[in-house]
């Protein structure tokens, strides 16, 4: 099976090698005396023009031209349109000059669309789905990019890889702590080391600003959901050499699934120190504690995708045991972003992060009908604990220089990551192993059984990389390469067996691209990129599996209309992924089936105009196929739609007695998908409406967001006849916000 075929089958635990970082905060309120004693006025002016100015756009400002506010790669964006990014290149590069597809979801877009999870925030992004398994998935799994599941291989925080275990990952991190979410599509190992073929998701953390600001919100709505959140910060001293920020969320809520909680506490402090005009260091951390239930019920296709003798399983149906239902997670990360300018043209950056996660799961889930006509569903139970510890550091040296008629931005770096995790699992039993899906009667007894898994993984990685961005007038080239060295040790310590295997892997991956920027704002490009991903799972005989590899060819056109705050992109891609790992029934042991191909096109447009109009449109055509699977050759992987489209638009009245009134909405379409690897049945297409109504006056904002406005009932995904998941029904959230 691809992705989540069973709660405790290893979900393609892949090694992720952290690297990358975007620029450290660029606010530079420097002591004038120190600056004047070191440089002439001319040198200071040149340096100020090269770097972002001290003015910092606060999160509350309305949409206008980003170029005029000194937008930087990891900084705030006014409106929906980001113009710069560091995710693709690790340098602060305009998106119109980046020869690879990058989608940026800004804070304003997350707020206007009422997104409360990373998955929801990605719903209007071309070729991407962050909630394939539906909005009630408290595991926050099934992140899909260009037809490939990247749940376990795709999340980065400020450019550093945040690893996963076989059972759990960090994708549930609260989006309120992000300044922006950036999706880099396609293989990117030339800069990031071990990463998936589909792409990566970079969670760019909110950083301190040079302007004092604050925001406090309270909200409530569907599924007994109540939430408070705050975000505040500014200078800590008169000189502006110390800046601070504190962001937090507290939530008490439930989901559409009966007996399933969704409670959260999130806190993220950050402090920036600027001892001189050349050095900036930001110390940042976050802590998140979730007390949730198990949202995935593993329902049969009969009764969800199609009726069971005219009957439909309710979307609120809970297949488990109410007293044995938990998905409790504790996440903590801490690190820093350091930047130092040796000269106007040479900059050193070091980014470091430690990440920790503990997860406890208690679950009984559906295991297929024992009597379909009667609606009797078998249930299986499990109790598991996972612990993840990871340390990552990325060192970068950037130089700018010219050689004859060519100008260069050259980056060289070395990064290191050390990750360890352990997954333990036990079977669980109940005196009522079956439940009627149409008339459930719940038992509350349970017992823990024998240990079924005790897997520990330790992995260390070192990567050496180099990149050159070359310009010849309006023609630009990008060349990059990386050498990785990875050592992985896997041990399994069960009462019946005790095994330990290790594997060393190394690979060179490259990237090459060419782009031309016309005066009209049109920029065609072509790129080639490769990926390399050591696999953590072991095969049926206990051997370590070979690394997955990938290759992509991409051709596209970007368009930034002159005088408009807008960006439009078109991309056509051809992706090949080799040594693909699946976990197929009945054994759910890891197997490498060979090769999967994904070809398609993407169109995406974002726009934020001064008259208060925001727009985001996306379309993706993805044709994925198992091209070397000996059993399902030529079949399409489940959950991957051929067509996906979305459109969001909102408008704020600028004048008159109703000035500040905002209204908008969106439509999301997901095409039909296959429900199993053998393509024996299909899950139907779906069309969903979202809506926004808000009013802003002075420092106050009152808003109402409704997702799935028509309360459309549909199945989000199936992985087998007994593994289907409902999408989230109508959800309304009202919010009151005060800003200063």
UniProtKB/TrEMBL annotation:
Compositional bias segments (type: Low complexity): 24-65
CDD domains: ligand_gated_channel (cd01347)
Domain TonB-dependent receptor plug: 95-200
Keyword terms: Cell outer membrane, Ion transport, Iron, Iron transport, Membrane, Receptor, Signal, TonB box, Transmembrane, Transmembrane beta strand, Transport
SUPFAM superfamilies (alphabetical): Porins
Primary location: membrane
Protein name in UniProt: Iron complex outermembrane receptor protein
Protein's organism: Bradyrhizobium japonicum
